[in-house]
Amino acid sequence: MRHNTPSITATTLSLALALSLAGCQNDTENGALIGAGGGALAGGLIGGWEGAAIGAGAGAIGGAVVGNLMDSSKEKQAAQTNAQSNQQTQDQIAQEQLKQEKLKTQQLQQQLNQQQPGTPAPTP
User: pLDDT tens digit string along 67-119?
Assistant: First the structure.
């Protein structure tokens, strides 16, 4: 069987371009599409239509694996950032509560200092 290499190459390039321009929601999907396009292009140049099909499949799997690793890394980083933010918020709340307690203690101390000897101290 004779292959028309320029026609296969042009079709494969068009497919690769269309796949790379398709927007995806995450890196796993992007990796699969870009891998499929690149694999199809390489496979098409080497082995015609059969090579393009095999290359697209292999490229999609490889691209999805790499994209999934990138997504996982981003999720870990986002979780760490979120945890740090939550800890900072909790620390700020604790500091504010401590300030309020110190203020109450100072106010009670001032009231006690203003008391004349012999009068009972106010109950909090």
Answer: 888 888 888 888 888 888 888 888 888 899 999 999 999 888 888 888 756 55
How many residues are present in the chain? Answer: 124
- Rounded CA-CA distance 37/113 in Å is 82
Joined together, the tokens standing for residue 42 give 């390489």
Residues sharing a CB contact under 8 Å with residue 67, sequence separation 6 or more, in sequence order: 26, 27, 28, 29, 30, 31, 32
Q: Letter for the amino acid at 62?
A: G
> Helix crossing, 27-114 with 5-21: angle to 10°?
20
Q: What is the tally of structural domains in the chain? A: 1
In a domain, 116, yes or no: no
Under a CB-based contact definition with an 8 Å cutoff, are residues 15 and 34 in contact? Answer: no
Give the domain range for residue 88.
Answer: 5-110
Is residue 86 assigned to a domain? Answer: yes
User: Is residue 121 in a domain?
Assistant: no
For residue 33, count other CB atoms closer than 10 A to its CB.
23
Q: Which residue has the higher pLDDT, 35 or 108?
A: 108
| 8 residue type, one letter | I
